[in-house]
Write a structure and sequence with these properties.
It is built from two helices and seven strands. By secondary structure, it is an alpha+beta fold. The protein has a domain of 86 residues: SH3 type barrels (Roll), CATH 2.30.30.830. It is elongated.
Length: 185
């Protein structure tokens, strides 16, 4: 032991001293635990009785899955009968967007005769009748009245998710002529 350094000897002495102090079981601690546990009087209530739930058969197996990504896509249709006739010769007013055309007048030949509408495109006025085409969306005139021209346009699906063609109605309202300015004012 004389060869061990001073610090090591100190640690060894301290370890032996601590071991001697704790060599027996602490009787006072055991006694205290017994006294405290005898004073504890408690009872855990029993668990509630479990009631069985009624068994219900699932009847939705034949329905479509509500979480399927296919439900987000629009319904696919054939689109037959709605496609525009792309082989038909184009009429002059089909070069203009519908928004640039102006309904400026109405003419009827004889009583009960054919009604013509006068449509302004650029600087020219064109006579049109039911069945003529207007605008760039394959618009076909369905009715001409004194106040408006009704037409049906054929456009591709506005959502852009399918290649189906759909019909939509459009109207050209009669544009009243602005009063001419009087000279001298």
């Amino acid at each position: 032991m004389s060869s061990l350094p001073w610090r090591r000897r100190g640690w060894m002495v301290m370890t032996c001293w601590l071991a001697a102090c704790t060599s027996g079981e602490p009787q006072d601690l055991k006694q205290w635990m017994q006294e405290e546990s005898s004073r504890l009087v408690g009872r855990v209530p029993p668990l509630p009785e479990l009631k069985p739930f009624p068994i219900v058969a699932y009847e939705g197996a034949s329905l479509s899955d509500p979480f399927s990504p296919d439900r987000l896509l629009p319904e696919r249709r054939d689109g037959a009968g709605r496609k525009p006739d792309l082989d038909r010769p184009r009429e002059p007013l089909e070069e203009f967007p519908l928004e640039s055309l102006t309904y400026v007048g109405h003419v009827r030949k004889k009583r009960g005769g054919i009604a013509y509408g006068l449509v302004k495109a650029g600087n020219a006025i064109h006579p049109v009748r039911v069945g003529n085409h207007l605008g760039q969306n394959f618009g076909r005139i369905t009715e001409i009245t004194e106040s408006q021209i009704r037409l049906v346009e054929i456009v591709q699906d506005p959502t852009g998710q399918t290649n189906d063609w759909v019909e939509r109605e459009a109207v050209l309202e009669l544009q009243e002529a602005a009063p001419a300015k009087e000279k001298g004012k």
